[in-house]
Design a protein that fits this description.
The protein has about 90 residues and is an all-alpha fold. The protein has helices spanning about 10-30, 40-65, 70-90. The relative contact order is 0.11.
C-alpha cells in the first residue's frame, strides 16, 4: 500500500478519526473506575501531546517547506475546537 496516493488532508482527517474511534472503543471495552482510569482515558490524555506534535510538524512544513499545509492546520483547529465543545457539553 502506497501512502502517497492519499492527500495530506485525508491522512490528517484519517488520523483523527481512527485515533478518536480507537480511544472510544478502548474506553468502552476496558473497565475502570475513579482510582484506576481505563485505556480510553489514557489515550485521551496522550491525544493532547500527540496532536500538538502533529500540528507542529505541519506548521514547520508550512513555514520552512515548499508545500502548503494550511488546510491541515485548519483541520487541527477544527478537531481541537470540536473536542473542547464536546467535552464542555458532556461535563455534567
Amino acid at each position: 500500500m502506497y501512502l502517497n496516493k492519499f492527500s495530506k488532508e485525508n491522512v490528517t482527517i484519517g488520523f483523527y478519526v481512527i485515533y478518536i474511534l480507537f480511544a472510544g472503543i478502548a474506553y468502552e471495552l476496558f473497565p475502570g473506575d475513579a482510582k484506576t482510569p481505563n485505556m480510553g482515558v489514557l489515550l485521551l490524555y496522550l491525544f493532547i501531546p500527540i496532536s500538538i506534535i502533529y500540528f507542529l510538524v505541519h506548521l514547520i512544513r508550512q513555514l520552512f517547506g515548499g508545500i502548503n499545509h494550511t488546510i491541515c492546520l485548519v483541520i487541527h483547529g477544527v478537531v481541537w475546537g470540536s473536542i473542547l465543545v464536546a467535552l464542555t457539553f458532556f461535563r455534567s
